[in-house]
């Protein structure tokens, strides 16, 4: 079995020139978090501290620890480094064991010849990532990318160098576990369980790779779901396959389609004398997955098919959840993925400028039934295909495909984020002057690795990609696409101009929750353009684009409170409009993956959950737009229609009504329809002109209703609507969880919202952005760990609606 001894204690950190430190170092960890814990730097996430800390990424750092060694009878002792960030030289007792240049893979070094009985000294020198990229530029030439820093010249988390939602915090450190692994005879160097399901039989082909210290024959056995099989690895051989067949298996399904049944797979390696020399265990799921891209009359579809069932992807993009990824715990992952599930999300795309996500992330996704698409780590840049980077790409891809093979939630690999698109549209060919840019990775190297190591999962060369080199990579009619012209250049109603097959990115900005802003930014007064707010807005012309959206739809803000609320409302409306439109096109469109679920720090961004983990109004809007059953009113060919979308497992049958109403609440026209929507489908119903036509758009609206579900259509923009000043009555009563706040509307209340975090940072609310007609009521459950003032709960700016901002 061998022995693994973690080496996580007793580390110190200092700059290589001794100008900083030594300070205690946490392992796993990174320089920034160690310096922060030691009080040597301010929090990089607060105010504009980030800027003053850029020197950290330009500095060489040294981690050191001492440990005792009592010796071993095993013939091998490896220093196993699960992850070093990034350019590292490893020295044991003054002898260099080796060097690294890739954050995204593990390394093993033969330590036994250099260990000594008693005290030992381990030292890891981390060179500046910037100096390494300078060396690479001199060696292989420059490559264009979307940002100033050359993140594409090093195999490191790209967003460390700053992004349009993230800070520049170039980390270094021992970011994954490190320890001494003593072993003999052989060890399991890799286990890849490849699962297929066909005609009621689940087949698990367990591919085993061993590293040997002995040439004796080995036996490898595998067991799952009551089935066991074994094979022999002949002397000198290093690979084997054990195949298990399970009849009538209990399947793993995506959430909403069935149960997430998982089975323990045990793999055991034995010596010629039947001694157990190594074991491996994971929980796997029996499921099949394919990507349907067979051409049809509309172009090239892009549909995930799980266990033979087409799945509409109600998705979000996932970025690293903390600038300093070593602070992530299983509990934090669980909190964020639970928020995804609670918003009716069924797919996460792990974006290519971050990391290959952790075992905790994938295990939770398996447990929750969340489908995951993992990008290979290339984003928004041209990447050199020369050495030494080419070999690192191959090594990391082989390791990560093997590592993640056991997870049923992983349903596809994407080759890159926006790089094929970038080559076509961002002026790269002229700047490259014939140099490589990554195409060989995406079209040759990576698909070959996936085909060899995991042919059970689909590979797609890029996001976006249209399926063929002769097509524009972002063609809406073919494959997957990204929609960014809406945020960058156009009003969000232009999402309706698109009829895509699958939207892998689209998004609209909004600021974080107020309590998050107040924790992170000390500006007094706080304003949309105050220094801290400007620093926490990383998007090019982001505030101008937010203002353009406000100008198009909403009354002019009078102060920061109005600006904050209205920009959050606009973000929620933009994504709801896009998602409802795309879902209404089913089955032409079979996926919407909005940008983005989460943030890595407090920032104005496209996220639904902000950097402190608080749900923005967008999150509540997503929950409605991604519900199993959706009613939506859509413009089609100059007319308004009602679309009923049913992503549930049962037919949706029942009455629905569509009413034209005055803003004051009086009905002006009404029609009734009967819904009969099969599972996993959408039905479009025409509406009569006397209901959908309005002679006074500023004073009328449409409301569709069925079984408590509502869809609204306003004939004019809020800035042009003749809203009455809001009138309402409120009641507040204490309940065990906190407070129940009921609002009784005397007039229409457009996008009514309650923001208890303005009273205490722990306070949350169960719903937001509820529109009420005169005479209707809404009840909000406020939860908090501190006492709140009931009067303040129902006062401005805690309780508010769009029509409390006067139209000028």
Average pLDDT, all residues: 97
Given the helix and strand composition, which structural class is it? alpha+beta
Give the helix proportion (percent range): 10-25%
Number of helical stretches of at least 4 residues: 17
Number of strands: 44
Widest sheet, order of strands: 3-2-4-10-7-8
- State the separation between the terminal residues, measured CA to CA: 76 Å
Note poorly predicted spans.
none
Rg computed from alpha carbons, rounded to a whole number of angstroms: 28 Å
Largest sheet: 6 strands, antiparallel
Judging from the principal axes of the Cα atoms, what is the shape? globular
Q: Multimeric state of these chains?
A: single chain
Q: Roughly what fraction of the amino acids lie in strands?
A: 25-35%
């Amino acid at each position: 079995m061998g022995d693994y001894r973690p080496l996580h204690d007793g580390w110190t950190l200092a700059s290589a020139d001794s100008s900083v430190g030594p300070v205690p170092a946490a392992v796993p960890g990174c320089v920034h978090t160690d310096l922060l814990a030691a009080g040597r730097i301010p929090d990089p996430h607060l105010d504009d501290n980030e800027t003053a800390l850029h020197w950290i990424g330009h500095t060489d750092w040294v981690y050191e620890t001492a440990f005792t060694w009592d010796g071993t009878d095993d013939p091998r002792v490896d220093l196993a480094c699960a992850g070093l960030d990034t350019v590292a030289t490893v020295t044991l007792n003054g002898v260099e064991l080796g060097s690294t240049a890739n954050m995204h893979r593990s390394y093993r070094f033969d330590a036994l010849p250099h260990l000594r009985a008693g005290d030992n000294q381990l030292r890891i020198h981390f060179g500046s990532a910037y100096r390494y990229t300078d060396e690479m530029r001199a060696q292989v030439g420059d490559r264009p990318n979307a940002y100033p820093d050359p993140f594409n010249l090093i195999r490191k988390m790209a967003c460390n160098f700053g992004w349009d939602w993230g800070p520049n915090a170039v980390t270094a450190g021992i970011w994954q576990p490190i320890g001494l692994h003593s072993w003999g005879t052989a060890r399991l160097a890799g286990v890849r369980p490849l699962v297929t399901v066909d005609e009621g039989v689940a087949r698990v082909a367990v591919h085993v790779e061993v590293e040997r210290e002995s040439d004796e024959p080995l036996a490898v056995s595998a067991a799952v779901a009551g089935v066991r099989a074994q094979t022999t690895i002949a002397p000198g051989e290093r690979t084997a396959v054990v195949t298990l067949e399970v009849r009538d298996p209990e399947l793993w399904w995506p959430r909403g389609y069935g149960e997430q049944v998982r089975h323990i797979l045990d793999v055991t390696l034995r010596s010629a004398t039947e001694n157990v020399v190594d074991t491996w265990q994971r929980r796997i799921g029996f499921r099949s997955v394919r990507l349907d891209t067979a051409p049809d009359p509309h172009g090239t579809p892009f549909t995930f098919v799980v266990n033979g069932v087409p799945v509409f992807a109600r998705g979000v993009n996932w970025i690293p959840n903390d600038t300093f990824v070593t602070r992530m715990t299983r509990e934090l992952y669980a909190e964020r993925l639970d928020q995804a599930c609670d918003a009716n999300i069924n797919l996460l795309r792990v974006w290519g400028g971050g990391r290959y996500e952790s075992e905790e992330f994938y295990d939770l996704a398996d447990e929750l039934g969340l489908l995951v698409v993992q990008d290979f780590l290339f984003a928004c840049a041209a990447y050199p295909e020369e050495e030494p980077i080419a070999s690192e790409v191959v090594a990391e891809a082989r390791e990560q495909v093997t590592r993640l093979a056991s997870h049923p939630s992983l349903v596809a690999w994407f080759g890159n984020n926006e790089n094929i698109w970038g080559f076509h549209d961002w002026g790269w060919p002229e700047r490259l002057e014939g140099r490589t840019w990554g195409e060989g990775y995406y079209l040759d190297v990576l698909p070959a690795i996936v085909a060899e190591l995991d042919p059970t999962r689909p590979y797609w060369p890029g996001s976006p990609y249209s399926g063929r080199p002769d097509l524009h990579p972002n063609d809406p009619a073919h494959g997957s696409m990204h929609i960014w012209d809406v945020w960058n250049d156009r009003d969000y109603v232009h999402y309706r101009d698109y009829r895509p097959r699958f939207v892998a990115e689209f998004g609209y900005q909004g600021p974080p929750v107020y309590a998050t802003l107040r924790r992170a930014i000390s500006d007094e007064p706080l304003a949309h353009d105050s220094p801290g707010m400007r620093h926490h807005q990383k998007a090019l012309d982001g505030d101008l684009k937010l203002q353009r959206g406000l100008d198009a739809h909403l009354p002019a803000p009078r102060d920061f409170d109005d600006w904050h609320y209205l920009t959050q409302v606009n973000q929620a409306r933009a994504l709801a409009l896009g998602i409802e439109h795309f879902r209404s096109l089913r089955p032409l469109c079979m996926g919407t993956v909005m940008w983005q679920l989460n943030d890595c720090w407090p920032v104005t961004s496209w996220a639904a959950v902000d950097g402190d983990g608080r749900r923005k109004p967008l999150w509540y809007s997503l929950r409605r737009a991604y519900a199993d059953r959706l009613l939506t009113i859509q413009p089609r060919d100059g007319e308004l229609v009602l679309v009923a979308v049913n992503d549930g497992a049962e037919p949706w049958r029942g009455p629905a009504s569509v009413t034209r109403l005055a803003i004051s609440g009086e009905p002006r026209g009404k029609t009734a329809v009967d819904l009969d929507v099969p599972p996993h489908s959408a039905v479009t119903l025409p509406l009569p002109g006397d209901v959908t036509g309005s002679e006074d758009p500023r004073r009328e609206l449409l409301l569709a209703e069925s079984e408590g579900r509502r869809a609204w259509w306003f004939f004019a923009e809020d800035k042009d609507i003749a809203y009455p000043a809001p009138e309402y009555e409120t009641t507040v009563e204490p309940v065990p969880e906190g407070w129940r706040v009921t609002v009784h509307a005397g007039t229409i209340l457009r996008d009514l919202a309650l923001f208890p975090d303005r009273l205490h940072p722990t306070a949350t609310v169960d719903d937001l952005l509820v529109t009420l007609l005169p005479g209707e009521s809404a009840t909000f459950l406020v939860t908090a760990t501190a006492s709140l003032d009931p009067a303040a709960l129902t006062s401005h700016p805690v309780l508010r609606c769009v029509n409390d901002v006067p139209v000028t």
